[in-house]
Amino acid sequence: xxxxxxxEQSSKHEHLEKMSVHELLVNINNEDxxxxxxxxxxLPQIEKLVTxxxxxxxxxxxxxxxxxxxxxxxxxxxxxECPPTFGVPFDLVNGIIAGGDKAIRRAVENAEDNTTxxxxxxxxxxxxxxxxxxxxxxxxxxxxxxAGLEKCNENNIITGCITxxxxxxxxxxxxxxxxxxVGPEFVTGSSRMKAGTAQKxxxxxxxxxTMIQLGKVKGNxxxxxxxxxxxxxxxxxxxxxxxxxVSYEEASELLKKYGSVRKAVDNYKI
Length: 270
Hints:
This protein is of the alpha/beta class. The protein has 11 helices and 5 strands. The mean pLDDT is 95.
């Protein structure tokens, strides 16, 4: 199969080294402005995948992101932020990167080319048919990710993907592909830029929409967030005050007693 890697095409901008700092920043910003519009075009695809994720999670399933390099790191970031933000278990949303945890900070040679390791990595989590696996790869050609989704398909596990090239091998493998076509990068081939931004926006949408659908947000507030520092405790106290008529001190005591905004408000109203 042949397809055009628009993420690898030559930048629209020439002689970057001759640009001033101001010119570089303006031109990068102008390129970045196109990303949300590209994401907008993919909203129908995103909706289909999120609908599947919510359905599976309501059956006790989990969400897995797999990727290599920047794509893998972005998946890990999104997964790691779900427990503190929404108060969900740490194993509900999982990020897996080719090369293991050491690849989060440093590239691991040939890790993305391994066609057997992704399934091995997933099996360590006892992956099953109630789970959903989303492959992330800007190019849509990463062997680690494609092979991982192929094994999931063989085992009746729902698969999705986030890629920035249309008609890629990854899109053809995923049951629910998301293609955000952002075009050439400012620095030719540097897909950590627009492609990475697009992937982060989509990941934000996937996890946030899923958690809202699962009831982890009330009104517009993170009522189940973990109270892991003074800033979040203060935010939680003020959330309680916005829901029930109590002083700051009373709200603080309620939060301390019940451990979450939701429980504090619910128990106060009983």
